[in-house]
Structure of Ldh family oxidoreductase:
Amino acid sequence: MTSADSSTTVRLPLAQLHDLACRVLARQGLSPAHAQAMARTIVAGQRDDCASHGLYRLITCSQTAASGKVDLQAEPVVHPTRGAVVRVDARRAFSPLAFERGLPALVEAARTYGLGALVIQQCFHFSALWPEVEDITAHGLAALALTPSHSWVAPAGGHKPVFGTNPIAFGWPRPGPTPFVFDLATSAIARGDLELHRRAGTPLPPGCGVDAQGRESTDPIAVAQGAMRTFGGHKGSALAAMVELMAGALIGDWISQESLAFDDGAGAAPCHGELILAFDPIQLSGGDLAQAQQRAEVLLSSITDQGARLPSQRRHAARERSLREGAAVPRTLYEEILALAH
């Protein structure tokens, strides 16, 4: 372990961070396969300086494991592929292993039919979506992922929770190691960021939520007891509703209201389904991959040439720094995670 600012931050080599995450998860009772898959996702978040989806998520996972809601050992069941649709039953276990088990069949479906759909049902999803879409772009495919969560978010014009934070992630394969990727919650702030504000005792940015009486608030505790807001008013609200329909009703799994009802105050991660779509640029472009890639690069260069930043650039810069120097972890969080490992 090397020190970044020994009073507030430590830097951990990624292998050490992965080992620590596995130790914590194993201590919670997870099978080795689940612990390894989850640790890979958690390390990716910390490596890319996504604090709300990195090592902090071990606390969420520990709370979920202690709730008794999640199956810590269940092996995902990959059902026989029917056309372009791949179905995986996570069997009320955490989601990363279900995704990893379904990924090969999704890639094969996309290459066979031009597009493929991975439907994951009955999963506890605690992580960001961008690691999943990056895994798909590594195969030369474009990807779109949608998932609901707990109903924490009010619709535009309302003040009672209906939607989850309902993230949407997209990935586009580029020449070289860094794809174009975005991952955004349809809420004005991610739930993990709200929790980090609560833990730090800092106010939320304006416009993120309302208290239990429907009054605007920047107090993370009051907003957690009231409702979060969607981003962009009615536009974010419409997208949040789309996620509920596409990654809930369409795939035969719970919407966010059902997930929260199942939780029943246990404080576990949301339990629901996930829809992941993969697209083969070779087949969908009629076989002219070079022209498709050229058009994409012209577009992306038109963004960066005027000094604008692509959505994934900050994460990729943080990734390079973490690979050289180790991932930065707040010392207080590191000590909290160490305690969970013993």
Observations:
- The mean pLDDT is 94.
- The first strand starts at residue 2 and ends at 5.
- Residues 95-113 form the longest helix (19 residues).
